[in-house]
Amino acid sequence: MSGRKLLCAAVGALLAGTVAAAADTVKVGIIGPFSGPFALQGKNFQAGVEAYMALNGKSVKGHEVEVIYRDLPAANPQQSRALAQELIVKDKVQYLGGVYFTPDAMAITPLLAQANTPLVIFNAATSAIMTQSPLVVRTSFTTAQTTTPLGKIAIERGIRKVITAVSDYGPGIDAEVAFKKAFEAAGGQVVESVRMPLSTNDFSPIMQRIRDSKADAVFAFLPSGPTTLGFVKAYNETGLKQAGIKFLAPGDLTQESDLPALGDGALGLLTTFHYAVSHDSPENKRFVEAASKAIGGAEQLSFPAVGAYDGMHVIYKMIEATDGKQDAKKAVDAVKGMAWTSPRGPVSIDPETRHVTENIYLREVAKDANGRLYNKEIQTFPNQKDPGLATQ
Ligand code: PHB
Leucine-binding protein domain: which residues (predicted)? Predict the structure, then answer.
């Protein structure tokens, strides 16, 4: 070999070495609300991710996993798209994850195919997100999924007339439609439907409308955070409960981290949801211990942590299946039909919709032996798919 050829071979080997070394680290970009009014929800994403990595290691098949967090304090599709673009182009992430609000997820889906990047959604809960790109997988829930069992539950508890009150955007509308469908199929009647702007924080006019409707119960959905706390407080404090108007909602409205602020007024509130921090299983015990450590105290834990924990499980499987190489289709194909025991119970990724199939639990706010309020699981609806996708 000539000197020149030798040099070329050496440079080639060096380059190949560099490329291989660079491919060794797999970057995951996670978008969520890490500051502002919804910061606790984002911190729960981070706690779920950190708990997963603490329990399962920080590398997959020799590929180090590096997580990059990007803060999106409130629903803001333009900013969401810009953050995703920056993660893809500048940070060269192979996977996107997180995303709390539906409009932010919708804004990212058009980027995925060209970027050859899967998006694993840890929260955003509108059914239709899944139809926007074949590269989306979701480990949270949909509001149609969590809400549908409530229709029958309401009838069984003697409720015949309901007023619905939901935030006027994707997951609220899905919740309203799914509840109405299930409740009317079981023989009930929705007498009025109120859609509240996302920015609403004075709920007294809504409470008056609920009272005036003379319904037996209110069905409500708002995205978990300061808004849900405000709504449930208003329900508790404006005498609707005393007036005998019952409360029905998915578990977004009684997330564990809000219960101390709601106080004893929350006792007896009925909700349906995919996850309660109190879920009694060895997998959940392990998860709660690790996630509490990551977030700095069990009292801050809430459902976004479990979406993130299972989201990382899916991303780890994708990294394993692609041996650290960037191949979004192969990665997504590898998790279709994947089944495991989550801290929430048995789950699987529906191979058709790429959305998580899971148990939905009926829970009641109760007090534990230490006087702390918690969501007590009292009934299980096993292996629920997303009914929202079936109707679209
Ligand atoms: C959503 O925007 O999809 C969303 C946000 C918070 C929730 C549920 C759904 O609690």
Answer: 25-368
Q: Please tell me whether residues 194 and 264 are part of one structural domain.
A: yes
Q: What value does the mean pLDDT take over residues 74-84?
A: 98
Supply the DSSP symbol for 235: H
Q: Using an 8 Å Cβ cutoff, are 177 and 389 in contact?
A: no
Sole residue written with tokens 């989550």: 342
Handedness of CA 186, 229, 98, 73 (dihedral sign): positive
258 lines ligand 1 (CB under 6 A): no
- How many whole angstroms separate alpha carbon 388 and alpha carbon 299? 32
Task: Report the atom number in ligand 1 closest to the C-alpha of 255.
Answer: 10
Assess whether 188 and 263 both reside in one domain.
Answer: yes
Same domain, 203 and 267: yes
Q: Cα–Cα distances in Å, from 162 out to 181, 183, 205, 214, 362?
A: 12, 9, 17, 9, 18
Is 101's C-beta closer than 6 angstroms to any atom of ligand 1? yes
Which residue range forms the structural domain that includes residue 57? 25-141+280-354
Question: Which atom number of ligand 1 is nearest to the Cα of residue 103?
Answer: 2
Query: Pairing state of beta strands 63-71 and 25-32?
Result: parallel
Rounded CA separation 270/365 (Å): 7
> Does 4 reside within a domain?
no
d(CA 32, CA 98): 6
Spacing, Cα 168 to ligand 1 middle (Å): 12
Q: Give the Cα separation of 75 and 299 in Å (integer).
A: 25
pLDDT tens digit string along 303-341?
Answer: 999 999 999 999 999 999 999 999 999 999 999 999 999
- When divided into structural domains, the chain yields a total of 2
Q: Is residue 326 part of a domain?
A: yes
Question: To test ligand 1's pocket by mutation, which of 38, 45, 101, 169 has the most ligand atoms within 8 angstroms of CB?
Answer: 101
Rounded Cα–Cα distance for residues 282 and 287 (Å): 9
Nearest CA to ligand 1 atom 8: 223
User: Among the atoms of ligand 1, which is closest to the Cα of residue 75?
Assistant: 2
Residue 12 above 70 pLDDT? no
Residue 235: CATH number of its domain: 3.40.50.2300
HSE-CB for 139 with a 13 A CA cutoff:
35
Q: Are 283 and 341 in contact (CB under 8 A)?
A: yes
Rounded to the nearest angstrom, the distance between the alpha carbon of 150 and the centre of ligand 1 is 18
E strand or H helix that includes residue 373: strand 373-384
Q: Is the pLDDT of residue 21 over 60?
A: no
